Amino acid sequence: MFCRGCRNLWSVSSVQRSIRRLPPPPVTKCRSISCLPAVWSEPRTSTGEGDKVLNLDTVPSWSVDPRTQEWRPGSNWNYDKELFALARRLGHDLADLPRLQTALTHRSALTRQPAQGEEGQGAPDVPPEHNSRLSFLGKTLVQYFVTEHLLKVYPKMEADSLGDIAKFLLNDPALAKCTDHLGITDLIVSQKRLDDPSKQKIIVRALLATVACLHLDKGPSAARKFVTEFITSKMAGVDLHEVIKLQHPRHILRSILSSLGMPRAESRLLKETGRATHFPTFVVGVYSGERLLGEGCGTSLKRAEREAIVAALHKHFATQLAAVSVPLKDYDREGDIDFFQPSSNEDDKAED
Amino acid sequence: MAHLAPMNNGCVRYICQLKRLTLQYCKNGGSSRGIREFLSETVAQFAKENPHLTVYVRQRPGRHPRIVAEFLSGNSRVVSVKNMSVEEVAGHISLLRTSSGIKTVKLAKPWHTDNPSIQGNWTPFLYK
Description:
Chain A is mainly α. Chain A has helices at 14-20, 79-90, 97-103, 132-153, 159-170, 172-182, 200-218, 220-230, 240-243, 249-260, 301-317, and strands at residues 63-64, 71-72, 265-273, 281-288, 291-298. In chain B, β3 and β4 form a beta hairpin.
């Protein structure tokens, strides 16, 4: 048999076939790997957090809701009840439900033709507004609250690294995962199929619009609480080494040391093994005067030195104010916000 | 490093991971007796106490009763409550309500440790 996929001769014994008088098989492709069908699209688990526990495979398949002609997951649930439950879960009041409904309505849902039989009970009344304005406000709010939080929690960190952390918390896959896990995705009213990875923006917009909704209805402290509880809480357990990418660590270290008035950085080889082998290990420490700032190991002296400088910077950046660790409280008072506190004038690298 | 709950639930705020319960029962079957009693007595109170859950009650004539739970993580779990008493049904529902929504996993070993090596692993610098 000649395979139409990989153009190889198929390993079926024609002798056996003729002995058993079997009909020729109907398929025309062999079973080699090159002829298997293409890999199915990935389920919508996002981000590099490596969270193997979560499994969105079992999200029920999408289908068109016959009453409203919209793409929906699941089968027999009542939209209004689910909306009510979402409001209670996220802390909205009952009076806010219309605005919450607006926050979940994507623009594409308003451009559809009215379907017949629209007066079925339980069909969501599509409000005449969509969530673009709310999500526009929400995006800025979320960025502001996250920035405020990071500035407060990491007083010694450079702005580039803060930007890296903010990007880690606020990129589309991360926010989409957040939205899924709050149960918001099921209730988004939209004409587009949301299980497509390119439609993550719609999901993220719904979340941002929900934050804006809270802000408008209950004030900035409620919105800040939401962002702190659901978005910045993802910082717990995250290794900053993976999140912060330091572009020029040597320059950063030099500028920090000179601003603190400490002696220039010097790297010294501490330990080594296997120098003449294929896999040497060097342990290099970076010193400022007599003080060891950081240690790093690597397969070459240069790499080890870079690791040492990066370790020193991470130790410096990751100093947090003791009072601001998770669980976070007392953020509701506006007067608590002052990022640029007068520096406490000891060598911050003095606490090792 | 400590193991965190999925999506860091509980680190700052805890939200109940159960989002939807569907109680399916048969009006006449004997195996549904317990859940019928639960439905006539307790379910309204339960739904009122848990406004973040939606509880659906569906009839499935001629079949054994069951509870389908859907979690925020997208997983679902089906619990057969055939021939159970009211207390057992309530117990299962309470178990679902406090569940984390992770799929039930068969543990390969009955133990877990973050420090498998007592004296420390060998490194090239151990005896230098």
